[in-house]
Amino acid sequence: MRYSAFSLFREALRKHRGWTPTWRDAAPKSSYDVIIIGGGGHGLATAYYLAKEHGLTNIAVVEKGWLGSGNIGRNTTIIRSNYLLPGNEAFYELSMKLWEGLEQDLNYNAMVSQRGVLNLFHSDAQRDAYARRANSMRLHGVDSALLDADAVRRMVPILGFEDARFPIKGGLWQARGGTARHDAVAWGYAHAADQRGVDIIQNCQVTGFLREGGRVVGVETSRGQIRARKVGMSVAGSSSRVAAMADLRLPIESHVLQAFVSEGIKPKVPCVVTYGAGHFYISQSDKGGLVFGGDLDGYNSYAQRGNLPTVEHVLESGMSMMPSIGRVRMLRSWGGIMDMSMDGSPIIDKTPVEGLYLNGGWCYGGFKATPGAGWCFAHLIARDEPHPTAAAMRLDRFATGHILNENGRGAQPNLH
Amino acid sequence: MRIDCPHCGSRDIQEFVYRGDASVPRPDPDGEDALARFIKAVHLRANPAGRHVEHWYHAGGCRAWVKVERDTLTHEIESTVFASEEIGR
C-alpha cells in the first residue's frame, strides 16, 4: 500500500477500514541470498538498501522478538552529524543527508524534524574545542555555527545562564540536526523493505551458524535452519553473544543506557540541547514530553534497565543546565543495551569468518546512524568492499592502531 | 546495587569505580607473540550475558581493588573478594 494525502482522505471517508498491514509477517523460507540478523533500525535499513541500491530481492531479516523491539524503540531520537574525526564525520553526514530525504524515499512519515542541535560550552577551553569541531565539520562540507551566549539565550531562554559554576558562554549549533520519530523509522524501513520483497521474520531467534569449511552458509534459528550466501549481523547490544556463536570475540562490551521522558508541557525546548558541563541531552517531543538522557550506568549489563544512582546523576545534570526542569514530573524511564566499542566508534566490516559481516559497536550513537549504517552495511555485503565513508570503521583497527577515538579516552568502553 | 567490600562491608555502588572484565590475564611482555597477546588483552572481551567477574575500585572507601562476581542479566552480585584473591567456587 502506498501512503499519500489521497489515501488518507479516501480512508477517512470509509472509516479507515481499507488499511492493510504495513509489512507482511513472513515465515522463513529454506534459503536466501542474504540474511540480516536483527530487525531493528539498522537491520531493516540494510535490507532495504540491499534491495533498492544493489538489486537483491531474496533477503530475509530475522528478529528474535518483534520488529523494532530493541534500541530503535529505546533511544532519545536525536539525529546530527557534528563529529570531529575525518573517519566519522563523512559517514554521519551521509546519514544526515539520507535522513533529509528519508520520508519521501520510504513513503512513510518518520517525523524527521530538523529543529537543530545545540551543544553548550561553559569555558574558553571548551569554546576552543567546539570551534575546532565546527571547523572540522565545515572541512567536510557540513554547516556549523559557533553561537555566543546572547544568541543561545534568544534561542533557549530557559537555560541556567547565570549558573555560578558553569555559566553558559555559548554553543555549537548544527541547524540541520534534530529529531525523528524512532519507532516510525523502523516501521518505515520495514514498510519500504517489504514493498521490495524482503521477508521480515519476527519471533525467530538465531541460535547458531551453519558452517561449511569454515564459511558461514546460514543460520540455525528457533524456527529451523535457514541457508544464505551471506549473513550480516546488526544486533547492537547482543553483538558479542551472536558473534560468540561464530567463535568470534569482539572489541565490545554491552552496557545499559537509561533514557527518560517527562509529562507533556507547553513548548519550551525548541531544539536539541546538550550540556557541556555534564553528560545531559534533551529535546521536546511533539506531544510535549521532555525526552532526555545522560551517562551509561557504567558496568556490563544485558538487563535493559538501570539503577537509581544514574537516574539521580542524570537529573542533577538536567537541573544544573535547565533549573526549571525541576518543576516537571518525570513520566517514565527505560534502559537499552549499548554495544560499547573500545574506542567509542562503530564497526562496519567483514569478520574473519567468511560469509559473516558485522555492523556493531555503535555505542550511544546508533539511532542517528540508522540510514547511513544501513547504506554502508548493504554496500559492504553486496560488493564485499567497504563504502568510502565507512572505510575507517574496520574491525582490525584496534590491532593496527588506526582507532577512531572521538574523545581520546582509551580502551575503556564505559568512558565513551 | 551495593557491593560487599571485603574490607569495608556493604557499600553503595556510587563509592566504586568500574574497571571491567577481571578474567583477562595480563600477558607476559617478554613472552612469544607479546604484541598480539596484548592487543587481544586490551581490546577483546567475552562480554557474557550472565555470570561476569569484574574489577571495581573502592575509590570512595578503602581504595582497594575488588573482584566482583555479578550477573549481567539481573545485576545480582554473587560474591566479592580482594582483587589479589580468587573467587571461591
From TrEMBL, chain A:
Give me the reactions it catalyses.
Answer: sarcosine + (6S)-5,6,7,8-tetrahydrofolate + O2 = (6R)-5,10-methylene-5,6,7,8-tetrahydrofolate + glycine + H2O2; sarcosine + O2 + H2O = formaldehyde + glycine + H2O2
Q: Which UniProt keywords apply?
A: Cytoplasm, FAD, Flavoprotein, FMN, Nucleotide-binding, Oxidoreductase
Cellular component aspect of the GO annotation: cytoplasm
Pfam annotation, one family: DAO
Cite the GO molecular-function annotations of the record.
Answer: nucleotide binding; sarcosine oxidase activity
Q: What is its main location?
A: cytoplasm
> What cofactors are annotated for this protein?
FMN; FAD
Compartment(s) where it occurs, according to its Swiss-Prot or TrEMBL record: Cytoplasm
Q: Which residues form a coiled coil?
A: none
What the entry lists under InterPro entries is as follows: FAD-dep_OxRdtase, FAD/NAD-bd_sf, Rhodanese-like_dom, SoxB
Question: What NCBIfam families does its record include?
Answer: soxB
User: What is the official name of this protein in its record?
Assistant: Sarcosine oxidase subunit beta
Automatic annotation (TrEMBL), chain B:
**Highest taxon above the source species:** Bacteria
Any Pfam family hit: SoxD
Q: Name one GO molecular function term.
A: sarcosine oxidase activity
A biological process term (GO) from this entry: tetrahydrofolate metabolic process
State the protein's name: Sarcosine oxidase subunit delta
